[in-house]
Amino acid sequence: MSTTFNTSDGGTHTPVPTGVALADEESLRQVFHMEYSALYAEARAELGENARALAPKVVEGAFVRAWDARARFQTPAQVHAFLVEDVHHAAARALSRRSAAHRLSGGGRQEAHVVQDESEEDAWKHIMHALHGEAHSPSALAEAAAHSRHEAAEHIKVSTRETPLWIPILIGAVVLMGLLGLAAYMTRLSTDAKFARALAQPDLQPVATISAQIGNLTLGEGTKVKLAPESKLTVPKGFGPDMRAVKIEGMAEFNVAKGIEQPFNVFAGNTQVVATGTAFTVSNYPGDSAVTVVVSEGAVRVGKGKHMHDVTAGSAVVANDTSARVATAAERDAADAWRTGTLVVTDKSLSQALSMIKRWYGSMILAPNQQLLDRKTSFRASLDSLKQATSGIEQSTGLTFGWIGQNMAFYEPDKSAAKKSGKK
């Protein structure tokens, strides 16, 4: 990745220690106590209420497989990534097996069973049994076989009446389509989780702009980014054709490189933008209640999880968690007009406007009378002209722009006249 400016955060790089992350069972135990609760909650969420009884086995199996693969891990982050990925895949496999059992039952209603949550202590004991070979003993194998038969008996109910042949065939086709859809969803969920983990690594150094600075950079696979002032772009290690994901805090325009199969992903707050070979702007400054996305070319998908919304060229949306709505003209201009050199402020308080003046022009302007900060203002100004911006504030608020000592400020006109005449 190349950039036309230097980062401004001045942070230091702290490398993750290398070595063997799971050197012994004690290190595995420490990882287990740190990770188990979150992994168990994630497994339960993916399995759903009807299959929550499978969650302990899914999570315990992930730790056993991590121990078997321990030679691969040099950092705790690698262990964490393996565990999360393994839980995702194991939950998908468990659901697939359960759906197959349900299909064999003729599609009868599945009953949810009351299940007592397993304690961490019991889960750790099961993992230790598996690691020390008890899981492969004759008695353990017999117990596992009995458990499998019991699990099947819970979900396979033999019908007492004859069913026409076409009904199970139809049910099988529907179930197959459902499984394919589930597999596709789980694959995307797993990919999104991989991106999120890569962007959350503690040793990443974001590319950042300061006040009045617009940055232009080109990512490794060819995507061009224009970064607005006071913005941060986080690019994960290994970014490329198979890892096309970035995180934006602030505002940026993306011209996505074409001809790459993997979609380009932008994470902004709780919202994700997915695009292939298109151009769009994302606005998400700290303190914003939602993310604004404006598409100038092609199309993108905006949202979170299952709640994704299509946005085509010429459209703009405001997204917040799982909801999205069409952006107003003012919201669109605020998020996109800067690309063509214009600052648009619509019905903002003077306090907000002065923060935007500092962001876009690098100038600190005061309002000595704190009551004036709530006064509303609207204006359009060239990013090359601070004078246009201050004149717009004067016209929309009735205030006067001038100097108090060495500081630029807005104040009531009568106070301005008093200062010019030398009165106190």
Brief synopsis:
By secondary structure, the protein is an alpha+beta fold. It folds into three domains: 25-199, no CATH class; 208-336, Jelly Rolls (Sandwich); 341-421, Phage tail protein beta-alpha-beta fold.
Beta-strand content: 15-25%
Q: Report the order of strands and helices.
A: EHHHHHHEEEEEEEEEEEEEHEHEEHEEH
> Uncertain segments of ≥5 residues (pLDDT<50)?
1-18, 109-115, 134-138, 151-161, 182-189, 420-424
C-alpha geometry = elongated
Percent helix: 40-55%
Largest sheet: 14 strands, mixed
| Straight-line N-to-C gap | 58 Å
Structural class label: alpha+beta
Number of alpha- plus pi-helical segments: 10
Report on the architecture of this protein:
The chain has helices at 25-47, 55-68, 76-104, 120-131, 138-155, 166-199, 329-336, 350-361, 386-397, 413-421; strands at 2-3, 207-208, 215-218, 224-227, 232-234, 245-255, 264-268, 271-275, 279-284, 291-297, 299-304, 307-312, 316-320, 323-326, 342-349, 365-366, 376-382, 400-404, 407-411. With 424 residues, it is of the alpha+beta class. Strands 1, 2, 3, 4, 5, 6, 7, 8, 9, 10, 11, 12, 13 and 14 form a 14-stranded mixed sheet that branches. It has a three-stranded mixed sheet with strand order 16-19-18. It is elongated. Residues 1-18, 109-115, 134-138, 151-161, 182-189 and 420-424 have low confidence and may be disordered.
